[in-house]
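Posting this for the archive.
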Amino acid sequence: MGHVVVKYKVTMDQPEEGRPDYDGIAMKIGELEEVQTFEIKPLAFGMMFIEVQAVLEDGEGTVDEFEARVRETDPLVGQIETLEMGRL
């Protein structure tokens, strides 16, 4: 089976007080085996998002499984949006 490269935009839910620990959350996501790169980028009004690039097996359900694992890294992980996808 082949592989696909997927680039994601991961946004955070806002906590009751303060702002999310973007660096800490990005490091947790970066520890996932499939993640090749990650970068914190500005979104709007002081909010940030984490851009994640991952190499995944090309098969049914692998993208959904990876996205579920990203959501499990931290309770503040909100929306995960696919920005780009391509085959290797």
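The helical segments are 22-30, 62-72. The mean pLDDT is 92.
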